[in-house]
Amino acid sequence: MEFLRTPDSRFENLENFPYEPNYLSVADGEGGQLRIHYVDTGPCDGRVVLLMHGQPAWCYLYRSMIPLLVAKGFRVVAPDLVGFGRSDKPTERADYTYANHVAWMSDWLTQLGLDDITVFFQDWGSLIGLRLVTAFSERFSHVVLANGGLPAGIIPEAFAKPLQEAYETLPVPDAHELGDRFRDTTGIPGFLYWRKFAAENPAIAQPGKSLMNDLMSAGLSQREVDAYDAPFPDLSYAAGARQFPSLVPLFHDEPEVQENKAAWKILEQFDKPFLLAFADNDPVTQGGDKTFKERVPGCQGLEHRTISPAGHFLQQDQPEQCVQAILDVMAHGGLQD
Fold this sequence. Notes:
Radius of gyration: 19 Å
Number of domains: 2
Largest sheet: 8 strands, mixed
Oligomer: single chain
CATH topology of the largest domain: Rossmann fold
Number of strands: 10
């Protein structure tokens, strides 16, 4: 599998991110290896808090949460998904499949040998992370799901063909239009515009103007913009960022629908503490917590919360509230002092 590796110089002197890189190599599925980067900080014998990011971010998204957790005595592990951050970036969009991402992160997780994990994940971190939780449930003790989900063909079949045909004729939106597209509930689902944008608008990785600045609730400093831009020197590094929205199994005939349905069967038996922390202003996942409350036994008896004020990237907007969600879920059952 051909891949690019972002030069280390792109990650020098990042704003509020002093962590030394760590790497593990995983099988790419074609006889080669891919290198996955992760932050691993805090006491090596501390209880593990795993932080998983989504698209188009990288573990820099957790920069304000990591020191708060380390101060509480936790070992904090925050990987970059393949195609993001300091991890290797396959050059072909076809190499980025949902199944590949699950396999790559499963290999990483088992190689690292993490156990008694409290996991906080959001966006694509949850689509992959929930598959890890269900595949290796013995390794996970607590879950915080924030602005995420595990879709398995959520668009009714009766609407599938008209929407798939409509997608082909959609105009490619600009970044500033995306919020309104998500909030418009009268026409084409906003996520299809996001899928179109990522696949066809080169602004997904535009040097000097991080897309994250358009997606955040609050503006970023220029140094933060530069940090979010760092993984993508040019568009050739962004195949993963361009492909990810097309991998979300919205339609019943898309890959990984059956695998996600099987994962849901396991979640319906998952009785470890499972806390929901969704933002008050995220049109992407709004209302997505309801299904988990209804179907996952571990959700019972917990104080689920709304992170406010916050948008889709609530780790950026309200890191203290996100950390408190982690502390609260770990306190359930008296496991946390």
